[in-house]
């Protein structure tokens, strides 16, 4: 009994993550436990609704010691005091030097790093090769404008494809409705001067409540779901949207999917991706085209990614950081990045021969040369939720003019009239 009192066991470290990233974190957890003799309370949750859960747990003070979170959440969670700054801890880790500075910015707040990115991404339009053949659409498909996309969706619809164009929309889609849907269209909806094709004017720090770009974007959604009925709203309301999309693909019911680079693995199973031959025989991808309006970008992209950070209330932050660095140790991190065709965030991985030899990564990474990021400032989560509601209203048949007006008024109510701008 005396010995037990003299050497008490340390409290376990807890870690909450989404099931889709298990192939990265679970080998890291096993290595950490073997090396330290400590126990990890691993809390694995479904991906659906994960963003809302982590935000709720951190704000309620019930979150795990270490947490996976979408990069867009970091600045707001850090500004609220829910995350522990990592700079001092990172200074003593020899692998920190390999992280790309630009990708650390999305995981920072007021010049301090609060989380480490797992990967980055780009966005594109994926399409089912067999259904394109069925609809008589030539491949490789290279749409130049939104009209080209709508025309292809119409051909898929006429050919009997159940989901001609799955464009993420609605509140259940969460950030996917904002990023894979609205922002990818918005960036190419108007000329880029003065941030006319964004949600935030970054020079004045005002949210954009009304603009030609927003109106064109919402009209695009309206054409897809209401006016031309180029998709049903069904997948956007599925219990597990990712699983429903995979099932639709397997059943040859999907035509075009607005999504991102992670689908190279996740159209099947994020933790058990298909062979290169199987994927390339089933689907292909093309960049998102601009609207076709004079002066607008010809293609668009926006990048995000996920991160892992430490709860500000973690009892043993050194132990929590040890868990993170074990997960991100080069051997484990590189193996996961390559096996799951993820876009690397570290030069020791991105410059390796194995990475540069991957044909998908080589091509998809080219899109990152002309990408941008979300408006990772406090308030973005609220704006994103309002965007998601706007697309939900469109699914319900509300006309674009009304949607824009309601969105504008909601921004004014939330942030004040002086913080909302309108473009003619």
UniProtKB/TrEMBL annotation:
Predominantly, its location class is periplasm
Cell compartment(s), UniProt: Periplasm
Query: What keywords are assigned to this protein?
Result: Periplasm
Question: Could you tell me which InterPro entries the record lists for this protein?
Answer: Bact_solute-bd_prot1, SBP
Q: Name one GO cellular component term.
A: periplasmic space
Q: Which Pfam families does this one have? A: SBP_bac_1
**What family, per the record?**
Belongs to the bacterial solute-binding protein 1 family.
Q: Can you name this protein?
A: ABC transporter substrate-binding protein
């Amino acid at each position: 009994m005396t010995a037990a009192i003299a050497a008490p066991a340390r409290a376990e470290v807890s870690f909450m993550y989404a099931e889709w990233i298990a192939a990265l974190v679970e080998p890291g957890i096993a290595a950490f436990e073997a090396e330290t003799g400590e126990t990890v309370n691993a809390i694995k949750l479904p991906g659906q609704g994960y963003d809302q859960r982590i935000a709720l747990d951190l704000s309620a003070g019930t979150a795990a010691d270490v947490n996976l979170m979408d990069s867009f959440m970091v600045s707001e969670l850090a500004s609220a005091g829910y995350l522990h700054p990592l700079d001092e801890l990172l200074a003593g880790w020899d692998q920190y030097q390999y992280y790309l500075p630009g990708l650390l910015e999305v995981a920072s707040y007021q010049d301090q790093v609060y989380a480490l990115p797992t990967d980055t991404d780009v966005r594109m339009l994926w399409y089912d090769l067999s259904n394109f053949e069925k609809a008589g659409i030539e491949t490789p498909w290279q749409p130049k404008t939104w009209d080209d996309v709508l025309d292809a969706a119409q051909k898929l619809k006429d050919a009997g494809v159940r989901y001609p164009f799955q464009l993420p929309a609605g509140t259940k889609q969460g950030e996917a409705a904002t990023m894979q849907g609205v922002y990818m269209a918005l960036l190419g909806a108007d000329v880029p001067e003065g941030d006319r094709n964004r949600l935030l004017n970054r020079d004045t720090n005002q949210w954009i409540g009304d603009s030609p770009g927003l109106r064109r974007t919402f009209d695009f959604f309206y054409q897809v779901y209401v006016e031309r009925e180029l998709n049903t709203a069904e997948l956007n309301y599925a219990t597990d949207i990712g699983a429903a999309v995979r099932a639709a693909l397997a059943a040859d019911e999907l035509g075009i999917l607005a999504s991102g680079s992670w689908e190279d693995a996740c159209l099947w199973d994020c933790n058990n991706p298909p062979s290169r031959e199987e994927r390339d025989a089933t689907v292909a991808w093309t960049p998102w085209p601009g609207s076709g309006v004079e002066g607008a970008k010809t293609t668009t992209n926006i990048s995000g990614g996920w991160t892992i950070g430490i709860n500000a209330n973690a009892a043993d932050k050194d132990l929590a950081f040890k868990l993170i660095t074990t997960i991100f140790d080069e051997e484990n991190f590189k193996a996961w990045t390559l096996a799951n065709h993820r876009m690397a965030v570290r030069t020791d991985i991105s410059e390796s021969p194995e990475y540069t030899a991957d044909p998908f990564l080589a091509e998809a990474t080219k899109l990152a040369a002309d990408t941008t990021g979300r408006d990772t400032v406090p308030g973005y989560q609220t704006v994103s939720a309002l965007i998601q509601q706007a697309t939900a209203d469109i699914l319900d048949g509300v006309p674009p003019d009304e949607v824009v007006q309601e969105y504008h008024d909601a921004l004014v109510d939330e942030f004040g009239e002086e913080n909302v701008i309108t473009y003619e």
